[in-house]
Amino acid sequence: MARLSSTGDMMVMVQMTTLSEEDRQKFSKLVVDAMVAAEIGVVSVYLQCNDEVCDAARPSAVLHHVHGQPQLRMPLLGLDFLIGPLSFYQANSRTCELLYSRALDWLAPSEASVVLDVCCGVGTIGLCASKRCRQVIGLELIPEAVESAKANAALNGVKNTDWKVGRAEEVLAGVLEALDPSLEVCAVVDPPRPGLHATVLGALRSCPQLSRIVYVSCNPESLVEDIVKLTLPRESDEDPFVPVRAVACDMFPHTMHCEMILLLERRSKVADPRPKGAALAEEAQAAKEARKVAFEASGAGDEACDAGAGA
Ligand SMILES: C[S@@+](CC[C@H](N)C(=O)[O-])C[C@H]1O[C@@H](n2cnc3c(N)ncnc32)[C@H](O)[C@@H]1O
């Protein structure tokens, strides 16, 4: 892994199989000497022991800091972020600024609102939002990233943030329950490729204080699945989200991949652009589909078929 800051500084993490102490020292010297001699701005080098057959090391993989700074400084939208080798950071710093600016413009938090930063990494989006809102609450799986988020808040003099380490699917419901019900809430979600856990989608959808979601996604397939779960009308709740606008963001130029930003708002807050008759017909059809899906999921359909077969 090589990570380049806009300052020209670079962090490098080299994976190797587990070596004896003596061999590791020799290998480390070769790597560091070569990188320093190359004069390409390497200011931090790590070795990671990975005995797997793929490059995704286990979270418990042993890490050795063998040269320079333990963290890399990444300036972003007027703030500074210190990041370690295990934390996620957007691959393209220039496009990342465009993406976060657009995401926060669409989120448009009021000064009185709480911003949830779900899958917050080192806290970049939440910290960039912190000046515009009352409080930021970040949720993140990787402990190193949460420690960086806390350190980055302190580094930038930001005091209105709270960071929770753990799986969003285990932490979010408790966070929402603990919120003062009079507060307005909006959320940025930026999950990994598989998208959000169903529990997270359910908690977001059923939180009445939550008026707006900005979904940042690196995988259009899981994005679509999650948007359907947030927006499909159901008989049990009156105010689902509706997709309002979306834009693709070329985070990975010269590849087939792109990042998406999608804004969702509560249906009651959005004027329906469809002609009235068409809207009613579409909703009746959607409700019919939803009833069919619920009926099939309950297994009642199978029982009916079985009964029919036996008759
Ligand atoms: C695409 S990255 C986005 C990070 C951050 N928002 C940013 O822009 O730098 C997704 C983040 O979600 C975290 N993550 C993955 N699964 C998670 C889960 N179940 N609950 C909370 N965070 C999770 C990853 O560790 C990673 O930091």
UniProtKB/TrEMBL annotation:
Keywords: Methyltransferase, S-adenosyl-L-methionine, Transferase
Name by which UniProt lists this protein: tRNA(Phe) (4-demethylwyosine(37)-C(7)) aminocarboxypropyltransferase
Any one Gene Ontology BP term: RNA processing
Gene Ontology MF terms: RNA binding; RNA methyltransferase activity
Superkingdom, natural source: Eukaryota
Transmembrane segments: none
Family of this protein: Belongs to the class I-like SAM-binding methyltransferase superfamily. RNA M5U methyltransferase family.
Residues the entry annotates as binding S-adenosyl-L-methionine: Q90, E140, D190
Residues at the active site: C218
Keyword S-adenosyl-L-methionine: yes
PANTHER family: TRNA (URACIL-5-)-METHYLTRANSFERASE, TRNA (URACIL-5-)-METHYLTRANSFERASE HOMOLOG A
